[in-house]
């Protein structure tokens, strides 16, 4: 059933779960985090307006539970629901469910599963572990470039602690032409450019942690 042509969406979801586990394991080894990177791709919960997509994110507990956890729950539920549906129909009627119908049914079943799982996890995960902080609160903090060389218009990845002491990953570039930031260099974040992208200057307090 895993490799049947009709169940390919659920096979893809299963392999995505495995890929996430591998990437997160590698990221932990190199001192990064897939969860934080995904969090940066989505809007800050405090900046969301009352749009339909934003309401859906709130309903799914986005901002109260790390986005990677919600993604894993979604993929696992989607894959299991799709395989279970096909297994039952195959056993009873002797044919696979058409992929489009199976995907729609699995998706509609998965959404409330993610909703209830997220609500439950939000009660046991400390609030300061959700990384739901505003990026502009990082201005004035000192970040450390972790890889690449940053130039104006070509940011490099850097890590910076937030007010909870958690390490977040941002993109930083020099605020002035002619400046560069090398890997390992400590940089003062002076301005938020867009999302998790910041302008920075040479740290005037090199001993500041």
Automatic annotation (TrEMBL):
Transmembrane segments: 59-85, 92-114
The keyword Ribosomal protein is assigned to this record: no
Classification via Pfam families: YqiJ_N, YqiJ_OB
Keywords: Membrane, Transmembrane, Transmembrane helix
UniProt domain Inner membrane protein YqiJ N-terminal: residue ranges: 7-115
Residue intervals of the Inner membrane protein YqiJ OB-fold domain: 137-198
Lineage: superkingdom: Bacteria
Keyword Methyltransferase: no
InterPro entries found in the cross-reference section: YqiJ_N, YqiJ_OB
Protein name from the UniProt record: YqiJ family protein
Organism of this sequence: Steroidobacter flavus
Lineage: Bacteria, Pseudomonadati, Pseudomonadota, Gammaproteobacteria, Steroidobacterales
């Amino acid at each position: 059933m895993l490799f049947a042509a009709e169940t390919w969406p659920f096979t893809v979801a299963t392999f995505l779960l495995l890929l996430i586990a591998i990437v997160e394991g590698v990221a932990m080894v190199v001192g990064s985090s897939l969860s934080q990177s995904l969090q940066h791709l989505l809007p800050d919960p405090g900046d969301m307006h009352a749009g339909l997509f934003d309401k859906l994110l709130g309903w799914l507990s986005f901002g109260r539970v790390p986005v990677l956890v919600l993604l894993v729950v979604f993929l696992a539920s989607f894959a299991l629901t799709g395989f279970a549906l096909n297994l039952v129909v195959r056993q009873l009627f002797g044919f696979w469910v058409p992929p489009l119908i199976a995907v729609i049914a699995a998706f509609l079943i998965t959404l409330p599963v993610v909703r209830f799982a997220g609500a439950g996890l939000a009660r046991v995960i400390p609030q300061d572990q959700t990384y739901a902080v505003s990026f502009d609160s990082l201005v004035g903090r000192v970040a450390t470039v972790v890889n690449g060389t940053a130039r104006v218009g070509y940011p490099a990845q850097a890590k910076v602690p937030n007010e909870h002491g958690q390490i977040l990953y941002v993109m930083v570039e020099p605020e002035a032409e002619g400046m560069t930031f090398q890997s390992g260099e400590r940089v003062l974040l002076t301005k938020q450019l867009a999302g998790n992208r910041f302008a920075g200057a040479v740290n005037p307090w090199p001993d500041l942690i």
